[in-house]
Q: What sequence folds into this?
């Protein structure tokens, strides 16, 4: 049995068009108007596939396929996210959601009556670009963050998530966690270069690296760019640049990765020494001890730097997620299904944060990766060939069929 590859790719390409602005950038930030358009489209496809659509209080959407024969049995859940970063690709998250709906459609068309219900989840704010932390909807669902706290989170634009969800019509009533699945499986693009470079079709994802986000504020002294001698400067911008270079040298030793993806200078004028630099540090490592070690090394460096540059440095924790091991049994099912289809499969570690890492808190969980060409992601050049998406969705179908007794 195969999924309907043509239909899946049509859905991916249609959803991919939603949220492209005049400047050609694809942006569907959590709870924004373009996110609503994407949500409406996915909910419509869920209804077309005969799924019961339910929205919980943090705006997670669930498409439930239950039959008279399996009603009341514990469900399996699949799914991912459709919110994006800024100037995003079209496969990140969307493949997992749309392939989940495709599985339900294919199984129904083939007259299959599974022993367990199948639920397709679309989690709110996986990217964490507008509201922090990332993987928020699945974290709340898994009980790792209170719904009230999440709804009260303030966005980078000063909006309140709960109000935005209501405004776009996705402030649901059902309590997050209302369904306890016996397993969760997420199909996702690798977003890194390994599978493409090494020529693998399928990744059986066995764990996911730890992620620490923090916001750092450096306060120096604004002064004239021309008249202030170097030795008398308290340049917040220079200090921020030193932090970036230090972090790169630090992670080269620890085998982690570090990204300073946002930077806000004040007063941000060409001829004024920056009085303030506010930025985020995204630190990741598959090894918890090394990740925690880097955090300590960085904290000590910030203290030393404040002395050296005569600036004030404060750091505020945004997220702290440990590495997550996935379910060995499900990984073996993925490998077996790939082999049966003569697809080259290898074990993978997820470099990216995923909704699956949160669902692993409440049930046996794993992921299936498909290659990203040149490893490009969080970038409009993100690309996975149609056949690679279809291969992944077919392996996804085989594993889910085995697990729900279809
Ligand atoms: O940050 C991440 O790794 C994910 O894309 N939210
Ligand atoms: Mn993703
Ligand atoms: Mn992403």
A:
């Amino acid at each position: 049995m195969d999924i309907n590859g043509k239909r899946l790719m049509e859905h991916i390409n249609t959803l991919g068009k939603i949220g492209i602005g005049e400047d050609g950038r694809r942006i569907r930030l959590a709870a924004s108007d373009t996110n609503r358009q994407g949500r409406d489209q996915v909910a419509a496809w869920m209804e077309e596939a005969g799924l019961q659509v339910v929205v919980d209080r943090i705006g997670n959407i669930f498409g439930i396929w239950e039959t008279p024969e399996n009603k009341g049995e514990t469900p399996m859940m699949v799914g991912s996210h459709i919110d994006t970063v800024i100037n995003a690709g079209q496969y990140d998250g969307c493949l997992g959601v749309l392939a989940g709906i495709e599985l339900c459609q294919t199984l129904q068309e083939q007259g299959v009556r599974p022993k367990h219900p199948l639920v397709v989840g679309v989690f709110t704010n996986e990217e964490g670009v507008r509201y922090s932390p990332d993987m928020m909807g699945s974290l709340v669902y898994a009980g790792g963050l209170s719904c009230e706290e999440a709804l009260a989170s303030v966005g980078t634009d000063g909006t309140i998530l709960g109000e935005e969800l209501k405004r776009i019509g996705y402030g649901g009533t059902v309590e997050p966690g209302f369904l306890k699945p016996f397993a969760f499986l997420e199909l996702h693009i690798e977003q890194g270069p390994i599978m493409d470079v090494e020529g693998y079709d399928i990744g059986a994802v066995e764990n996911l690296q730890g992620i620490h986000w923090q916001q750092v504020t450096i306060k120096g002294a604004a002064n004239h760019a021309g008249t202030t001698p170097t030795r008398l400067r308290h340049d917040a911008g220079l200090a921020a640049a030193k932090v970036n270079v230090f972090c790169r040298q630090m992670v080269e030793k620890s085998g982690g990765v570090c990204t300073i993806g946002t930077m806000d200078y004040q007063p941000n004028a060409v001829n004024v020494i920056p009085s303030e630099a506010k930025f985020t540090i995204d630190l990741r490592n598959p090894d918890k001890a090394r990740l925690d070690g880097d955090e300590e090394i960085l904290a000590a460096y910030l203290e030393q730097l404040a002395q050296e540059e005569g600036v004030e440095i404060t750091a505020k924790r945004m997220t702290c997620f440990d590495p997550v091991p996935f379910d060995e049994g499900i990984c073996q099912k993925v490998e077996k299904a790939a082999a049966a289809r003569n697809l080259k499969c290898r074990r993978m570690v997820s470099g990216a944060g995923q909704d699956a890492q949160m669902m692993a808190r409440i049930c046996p969980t794993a992921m299936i990766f498909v290659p990203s060409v040149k490893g490009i992601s969080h970038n409009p050049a993100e690309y996975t060939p149609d056949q690679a998406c279809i291969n992944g969705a077919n392996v996804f179908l085989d594993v889910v069929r085995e697990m729900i007794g279809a």
